[in-house]
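Researcher: Go.
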Amino acid sequence: MKLNNKFVNLPSHDFSIEVVEHKGRGNPSMICDLLINHLTTRLATIYKDFYQTDIDFDLSDSILLAGETIPDFQGSGSIFKPMVFILGGWATDEHQGKRLNFDYLIRSEIYTFLKENYRFLHENNFFIKNAVKMIPAKLIPYLTKNNVIASDEWVAMGIGGYTVLEKIVLSVNKYLDSLIKNSQPEIGEDIVIKGTLEKSSLKIKIDLALVDYYVKNKTDYKLKINDLKNLLEKYVKRQYSQKVNIIINAQLTITGTTIENMNFGRVGDGNLNNGLISYIYPQAMKMSYGKHPSHISRTYQKIAQTIANQINIKLNKRTFVWLYADKNLPVSQPKLIHVQIADYQIKDNPLIERIINKNFSLLSI
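Model: Structure:
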């Protein structure tokens, strides 16, 4: 397979300041992304099982609206207005005389997902508005058939490898998750970690929700924040020996998420493929949540990330990969592959060619 490739050298990043953010699973936009990712995966499988064919859909026009609450200590707060998840886009509920109860299906899947991933989100405080437009079935050709033409134009991006700061931010999130499960249940799932590395000075700013049920009073609130800060300082200093500044901004909540009272979320505003938002590095234009798993956007995002990871593993260099799909070309032949590797000469590199060709050959069997 002949590829129209562009490989360029990327100078070693030597910025005076680096800023990295990670949104936890309880962040409003991450709830949207994770919910929609779950729904699209399940809906594709259900369509296939029920109709014996692949049927397209798009649920990317979904948003999560904030509710209205007054939290209080020892779980005595009140919910006056529930948060509302508006599921938007288009799908199919009838094909060849067979009808699917779409509304029941999506509600069942959403509440099952919430029960498995969020301790305090349920039917009583998380309402669902089904605004999905039902249209005649759009059938999807199999991706593994040779010369299938791309269904859309799309630019996908993959990032291989992590900087020191990125590793610390992801590690802090993992550590907070372990605290929620094991010793600090007052920490809500809504966590946003922003790391800043300026010269050798590291600042970790954490915005998080506290669950009012586990907080006795104002004194206990301050004590829990202080204890958490001390734990985090010790944890981060085991990974970073220079100056470390931990800042915690906590909001008292009933559900452990800020969507109950102030923030809203929308599909595509969460983390990128590598679980981060790195502000000074190249970024993808948007994520593809809501599309069918076989949509060109999700296919190319998966391949771009796989290629970037494989190159990074082989060369131990920070790698960026862009793929551009053209509507008029087969999915196995992207119009452009753009590879950047930090501080590495890659022109006409056979290793990179082999990695790329191997991943795209899987689409043209």
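Model: The longest strand covers residues 187-198.
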